[in-house]
Amino acid sequence: MDPILAEIYSTVFAAAPYVIGAYLLMWLVLFTYVLIVVGGLKRTERRMAALEEALALQQTVPQTVPQVVPQQQDTP
Asked: Which of 59, 40, 33 is nearest to 48 (CA)?
C-alpha cells in the first residue's frame, strides 16, 4: 500500500467513531424534534375537532332568549 494512503486512512479511521457519534446524535435530535412537532399537531387537531363540534352543536340548537314583556300598570 502507498505510504501516503496509509497515512490518510489512519487519520480517517481514527476519527470515524467521532463522526459516527455526531451523526447518531444529530439523527436522535431530529427524531425527537419530529416527535414533539407531531404531538403538538395531534393536540391541535383534537382542539380543532372539539371547537368544530361545539360550533355545530351551537348552530343546531336554537338559542332561546327570554322575551321581556313590559308589565302594564294599573291606573286608578
From this structure: 40
